[in-house]
TrEMBL record:
Cleavable signal peptide: 1-20
Listed Pfam families: DUF3868
Keywords (A to Z) from UniProt: Signal
PROSITE patterns: PROKAR_LIPOPROTEIN
Keyword Transmembrane helix: no
Protein name, as recorded: DUF3868 domain-containing protein
InterPro entries: DUF3868, OmpA-like_sf, TPR-like_helical_dom_sf
Domain (DUF3868) ranges: 11-93
Organism field: Parabacteroides johnsonii CL02T12C29
Length: 482
C-alpha cells in the first residue's frame, strides 16, 4: 500500500481507531478498527474477536461490512463464520477465498478466537463523510440483508489533508555599489641560471605563459567587465644567498609584468609588482604534504624563529640528517617555490532584474547576491523557479552567510531538512536562522520544541509575522494527529 508523504505538505490518510463494539446479539466483537485513505483506495482494517460467538455445526453467519452514506453504498468482502460441518463443506467445495473475494473462518465454539480483516474499495468523494456499517446475513439473503438489521460500527470522516506550509524569513542581501571580482593563478616560469629575462619558448614557458594570457583574455573579452588592476608577485626558492634571491624575485616579476604589458593595452588599469625573495611559507606547506626523511627536523628548522638570518637558516636546513633530505627537496620541492602569482582584478556593471534573469542561467558569476535576490522576487514564493534561484546563489557564494540562510529556507520549503541544516551551519545566529531551525523541527514532527522557538520569536520584529503564523501550523498539525 503506497502512502503519500511530503515534507512541506504532509498528506496522511484519515485514521480512526475506536474501542471495541458489538454487532447485534451475535456477539461478534470488533476490537480494533481503522479506516484510511491510501491513494485511490479506501482501506478498512479490523481485528475481529469471535470468542463470544457460538455457531451451530451446520450453520453459517455472513457479515457484510458496508460503507454507506444515504443511498450511496459500497460493500466490502464478506466475512463468513462457519460451524464445523459447514466449514468442512466449504473446504470440500474447494472455494478460493481470494478469487471469491471473501473471508471464511471456522468457529471453534468455546475458545478464544480472533482474526484480522483487511480489505479495500475504490475511493469515492461521498465516502469522505460516511459510516461503516455491518449487515448480518443468517439466512443467505445476500444483498437483501443490507439495510435489514445493520449495526453501525463508526463514522468515517476523511477531510482534505492538512498541508504543512510554514512561512520562512528571507534576508535581502546588501547591494554592491561596485561589483569587484578577481581571477588569479600561478605561473612556474623557467629561467636560465641567474637570468631574469623571459624566454617564451624556453622549456615549459609556452604553457605557463598561455595560462596567463587566457586569464587576462577571459576578462578582456567579457563585455560586462572592466579590468581595474593587474598584480604580479614573484617568488624565489631559499637556495643560494638571500640577496641574490631578492634580486631574482623582483626582476623576474618585473619581466613578467613587462611581458603582459607588451601584449595588451590595459588603459587606466593599475599595474602592481611585488616580490618575496624566498618562499619559506610555501616550503613549509609542501613539506607537510610529502614523505621525506627527517621530515619533523626539516619542519622544525623552517618554523623556528631563530636564526633571523635566512641564509643561516638555509645552512641549518642543509645539515639535517647529513644533507640527504635537503638534496631531495632541492630537486623535488624547490622548483615549485620559484613562481609568479598573478591577479586580474575587474569590476562588473550592475544589471536590471530582467538582465539578471537571463544571466542567472547563462553566466551567474556576473551577478551579485542582491541581483539574484531581485530575480527571485519575480517568481511566486515557494515555487520551483523561486527556490532554484537561491540554490544557484549558494553555489556561486558558498561561504556567504546570507546565501546560506536563504538556501536553507528554500531547502526546507522543498522538504530537504538535512540539506537545510548544512546551510544553516554557515549562517550566523539571527532571528531568521532560529526561525528556520524551528521549521526544521516542525517538519520532523517535533512540535513542542518548534512551538517553543516560535513563541520566543514573537518579540522579534523581523520574524514576528512568520512566528505567529507558524504557531498556527503547529496547532493544526496537532489537531490532525489527534
Amino acid at each position: 500500500m503506497k502512502r503519500i508523504l511530503t515534507t512541506t505538505g504532509l498528506f496522511l490518510g484519515a485514521c480512526f481507531l475506536l474501542s471495541a463494539q458489538e454487532t447485534g446479539n451475535n456477539r461478534l466483537v470488533i476490537e480494533r478498527k481503522m479506516v484510511e485513505r491510501a491513494d485511490s483506495w479506501l482501506v478498512v482494517d479490523m481485528t475481529v474477536d469471535l470468542s463470544s460467538l457460538k455457531v451451530a455445526s451446520d450453520r453459517s453467519i455472513q457479515y457484510l461490512p458496508t460503507v454507506r452514506r444515504g443511498d450511496s453504498l459500497a460493500v466490502l468482502p464478506p466475512l463468513i463464520v462457519n460451524g464445523r460441518a459447514r466449514h468442512i463443506l466449504y473446504e470440500r467445495m474447494d472455494r478460493d477465498r481470494m478469487e471469491n473475494n471473501e473471508f471464511e473462518v471456522y468457529r471453534k465454539n468455546g475458545t478464544e478466537q480472533r482474526m484480522d480483516y483487511h480489505a479495500r474499495v475504490e475511493f469515492r468523494d461521498w465516502m469522505k463523510k460516511s459510516e461503516l456499517v455491518m449487515a448480518i446475513d443468517t439466512c443467505g439473503c445476500g444483498w437483501e440483508a443490507i439495510g435489514n438489521g445493520e449495526a453501525s460500527l463508526f463514522p468515517i470522516n476523511i477531510g482534505e489533508p492538512f498541508v504543512l506550509a510554514p512561512l520562512m524569513a528571507y534576508i535581502t542581501p546588501e547591494a554592491e555599489a561596485v561589483k569587484v571580482r578577481a581571477k588569479e593563478g600561478s605561473a612556474y616560469l623557467d629561467f636560465p641560471v641567474n637570468k631574469i629575462e623571459i624566454y617564451p619558448e624556453y622549456r615549459n614557458n609556452p604553457l605557463e605563459l598561455k595560462k596567463i594570457r587566457e586569464t587576462i583574455e577571459s576578462v578582456r573579452n567579457d563585455k560586462y567587465a572592466t579590468i581595474t588592476e593587474v598584480s604580479i608577485k614573484g617568488y624565489a626558492s631559499p637556495e643560494g644567498s638571500y640577496a641574490n634571491n631578492a634580486y631574482l624575485a623582483e626582476h623576474r616579476a618585473k619581466a613578467l609584468s613587462g611581458y603582459v604589458q607588451g601584449l595588451y593595452d590595459f588603459g587606466s588599469a593599475k599595474m602592481m609588482i611585488d616580490f618575496e625573495p624566498e618562499d619559506w611559507a610555501g616550503l613549509e606547506k609542501r613539506l607537510q604534504t610529502i614523505d621525506v626523511e627527517a621530515k619533523d627536523e626539516l619542519l622544525a628548522v623552517v618554523r623556528a624563529d631563530e636564526p633571523k638570518d635566512l641564509d643561516k637558516k638555509e645552512w641549518k636546513l642543509r645539515q639535517v640528517a647529513g644533507g640527504a633530505p635537503y638534496r631531495y627537496i632541492l630537486q623535488t620541492v624547490y622548483p615549485a617555490l620559484r613562481h609568479s602569482d598573478y591577479v586580474v582584478q575587474y569590476k562588473i556593471r550592475n544589471f536590471t532584474a530582467d538582465e539578471a534573469k537571463e544571466l542567472l542561467y547563462s553566466d551567474p558569476k556576473q551577478l551579485s547576491l542582491n541581483e539574484m535576490f531581485q530575480v527571485a522576487q519575480t517568481y511566486e514564493p515557494g515555487s520551483d523557479a523561486f527556490c532554484e534561484v537561491f540554490e544557484i546563489a549558494v553555489r556561486m557564494f558558498p561561504d556567504d552567510p546570507v546565501s546560506n540562510l536563504n538556501a536553507a529556507n528554500t531547502a526546507l520549503q522543498l522538504g530537504r531538512i538535512d540539506q537545510a541544516r548544512r546551510y544553516l551551519a554557515k549562517a550566523p545566529d539571527s532571528p531568521q536562522k532560529r526561525l528556520a531551525e524551528a521549521v526544521a523541527l516542525l517538519l520532523e514532527g517535533n512540535l513542542d520544541d518548534a512551538e517553543t522557538i516560535f513563541r520566543a520569536l514573537e518579540n522579534e520584529p523581523s520574524v514576528k509575522e512568520q512566528a505567529i503564523y507558524n504557531q498556527q501550523q503547529v496547532k493544526q498539525k496537532r489537531e490532525e494527529l489527534n
